[in-house]
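Might I ask for a little of your time on a matter of protein folding? What I wish to show you is a protein chain and, alongside it, a tokenised description of its three-dimensional fold. I should value your view on which stretches of the chain appear to form regular backbone elements. You will find the record immediately after this paragraph:
***
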Amino acid sequence: MIGCHTRVGMLNEDVSGKWMNKILGKPIAANKLCIPNQVQMKRGTVFSRRLFKKLGFIKEAPRSSFSLEEYLEVPTLKIIAIIRDGNDAIASMMNRGGSTLRTGSNRWAIATDTIYELRSRYPDRVLVIAFEHLLSEPQASLNEICSFLEIAYEKEMLNGCRYNPRYPETELNGSKAYRSRAQHKHFQLAERFPSTYRRYEALLNTAGKAVLRSPLLIFFLWEWGCDFDLLASSSIIG
């Protein structure tokens, strides 16, 4: 959806770190990555990450060449982070990606904790958007994003879901919001991850609130399992 904006040039899940130099002719360059399997707050060596994950010492080995902290050394970079109800996110990872309950739960928890840390450390550079609000009130959510980027809202952004090469849809599917409730899927996240769940609730309360400063670069952080691409034909960092 952001990729439909005439002032934004977007890439989808470019982990090379070279995306900032690949986009021409647009004042804002953007990329989408997923937390935690593609990018995390800190980074180790590629060899150590893969080895430790194989040995079971760490849960994720993100493929991004740079960490979020390293990206944020670029003074003009901003982050738009998408959060989603944990039960829905985990169910999506299990259904679509074949993850186990344990893996899906850990990924949701790491993503939520990371976004909370980002919002706490960089409040003027991070905008949090609730996935459910994006589905139920897409124009309002997109207006918030455009205000954050100091660009004018464009109606064509609402058609972004039609140009998603992975999961094209003719319109936004509102049934994806809180789908786990209808399916009676409850993974007891408040009991299993009490501190993370409190952080998720705090993020919901701050969603859409950020200091407005004009960026040149955008990082879109996507919680794994949101199963809807915010970016149009090619997406973004995140």
